[in-house]
Amino acid sequence: MEIIKSAAGHNYIYDRNTSYISLSSNYSPKENENQVNPHFAKKLDYLTRHGIISQEKSENNQYRLLTKKDIDDAIINTHQIILEVTDKCNLDCYYCGYGHFYDNYDARLNRDLPLDSFKTLYNYLKNLWETSYNKGCSYLRISFYGGEPLCNFQFIHDAVMYTRNNPILNKKIVFSMTTNAVLLDKYMDFLVENNFEILISLDGDKFNDSYRTFKNGTGSFDTVISNIDKLQSTYPIFFNKNIKFNSVLHNRNSVREANHFIYSRYNKRPMTNELNVFGIAKCKRAEFLKIFHSKTSEFNSMSNEEKQVYERQSPHIIQCEKWLFSTLMKTYSVNIFDALSDNFIESLDSNRQEIPTKTCIPFSRKIFVSVNGGIFPCERIGNEFNFGNISGNELYINYDNIIERYNQLFLKYITACKTCKAKDFCSVCVVSDINGYEVCNRAKPRNIEEIISFFEANPEEIREIIKNISII
Fold this sequence. Notes:
By secondary structure, the chain is an alpha/beta fold. The chain has helices at 38-49, 68-77, 115-131, 153-165, 184-193, 221-234, 236-242, 255-266, 285-291, 295-301, 304-309, 317-326, 328-332, 336-340, 342-347, 399-419, 438-442, 448-457, 460-468, and strands at 2-5, 11-15, 20-23, 80-84, 139-145, 172-179, 197-201, 243-248, 271-273, 367-369, 375-376, 388-391, 394-397.
């Protein structure tokens, strides 16, 4: 346990072993140099006696490796299915993650995901939740991805109808999609009718967006803007509530430019993401670096006033999100079932063993199904791992391979994690960083004081992170 003092001068009791945090601003640990504040002492004694904190100044450096139980628990608690409904796309974006820079993906062969693959996964999860005492969270997000998902609209239509006709007991279904908006005008009525949450890819103004071209090399900007404008004018309430934007950063745009165009035109601030640095073909690295735009460098060049405006674009925001979900959310949002569960009781044990890094347990946040039926824990990683597959009515999870490969990677990080000050809010994904330390070495972590001060100064960000985390 330690006392953290924020930039505003408020004291917090913080125990990293149990992820407990509590405001104690009105009570100084000591009334003077020699006398401990009695109220503060009583509070610490109460928390210590109930195992919520430990007054020993020791760090939990005990690590364990991934087990089958971890994966089973993750699957039953997953809250999102992402479906690569097609590998076809009506654009040929220069920096595409399935394009010429990368060599860690399956060949794009103009395939469509069979509806039976979705039904098999959906029915598997439905049966799991309806027969188990653990029902997972209260909703399931079904996300459509590509390629351009609207190039296989029939799949989207049929999958939505299937879930409508086969509801999951005590589970709300939410539909979402990432789209380039080229076909948005054609299918927007259906998307609005089914209350889709839509993430539109747009890099800024016409020049900023000029890497996003059709197959013949002409820009897609005019078509996309026309479709977005049409959606906004036809369904303004839906647009305000359900539309978000994502901008990819490169040498033709910036955080400032993407935000300026999208905010001034649509009154929305986009998410901004750097180009994926993993899976780059060796022969393409020099060319890739010419168009790579560092968000960290741009953010560091901003004035303090600009940093406040673009705080959501900060390269440190992922660290803040990680810390939020392992501390504030656990401390203040635990329900009765969680408080009585083995996982929560174990989290109060200062001698518990953790898995190195804060890499997501496979399938804990999402289950991604590729167009050829491959099962992955995320749409952002390559196909170097065999996590499992869906074939017809059969679903297979390759537990042995997952456990072996993950643990090989975790073993690389144990020594570094023991001494790392950012281990509680690490943003490294070992499955992406398979070469070791590419992110770990370059990341400049915030400390606990900075993160607490950030949320104290920007409390509205807590709500925004909770709202957006499932899309990120």
